Amino acid sequence: MGVRVWTRRVAHEAVAAAAITAAPPDHTTVTPMVVGPAAVPAPPSPAAVVAAPIDTAAQWEALIQTVATCTACPLHKTRTQGVFGVGDRAARWFIVGEAPGEEEDLQGEPFVGRAGQLLDKMIKALGLRREEVYIGNILKSRPPGNRTPAPMEVAACLPYLKQQIELVRPSIILAAGSVAAQNLLASTASIGSLRGRVHRYGPSRIPLVATYHPSYLLRSPSEKRKAWDDLRLAWRIFHRAPPDGKDL
Ligand code: URA
């Protein structure tokens, strides 16, 4: 990312890697469907037990189809395609951006342009690979000229992102930029005041850390130091490490 604020010590890299590999997400556990004895006398068969993940897969597929054919806002007329989201559907980290740009609109994947390259470095700094996280945007369609999303566009599209978060059930959310942070937190506060502390998202009170958007950091490299501090904060929350800064 071009900022040398801190260097991860080898020992802590190992701890982080171990935590990531040794502590599988709770939500990967398959919860069998509970069927009341009055309704079905026999205990659930093995086939019924494996039905739960198939349901989840069906929910993903239904959501993908809905987004691909969505006409709820005018952006469907100008977009090349809807940009659904990408990554591990059982990820522990969910990263939220603003909206697809030109490259994303063409390729159908979030954060593949210049901002995406910087985001990849941020993900790497967290000790992760892009495939290990889930990446989504507030909007699934590119606003013409990359303008800021209009409120009605956000209102139409945000429920899709919320459903994605419900399906992934991440351990932590990283909101990149003011549009992501403000809309997930239903706040009008500036990104400068939302970053640097831990918020909670939704009924499950998922920890949410806000930081600057990679596009902003490309324009204002002097702010990278603060973004790096935000990543350190998120890393500590995720690993439940003490806040004295000795963990990285
Ligand atoms: N900026 C975003 O917020 N999202 C993308 O997918 C690309 C650039």
Short key terms for the protein model shown above:
248 residues, alpha/beta, six-stranded mixed β-sheet, 10 helices, 6 strands, globular, disordered N terminus, binds uracil
Plain-language structure description:
With 248 residues, the chain is of the alpha/beta class. Helix content is 42%, strand content 10%. It has 10 helices and 6 strands. The protein has helices at residues 10-22, 46-49, 51-68, 102-107, 114-125, 151-168, 178-185, 191-194, 214-219, 224-239, and strands spanning 86-87, 93-97, 134-137, 172-176, 198-201, 206-211. A 6-stranded mixed β-sheet has the order 1-3-2-4-6-5, sandwiched between helices. Helix 3 (51-68) packs antiparallel against helix 6 (151-168). The radius of gyration is 19 Å and the shape is globular. Bound molecules: uracil.
Task: Please sum up the structure shown.
The chain is of the alpha/beta class and 248 residues long. It contains ten helices and six strands; from the N terminus they run αααββααβαβααββαα.
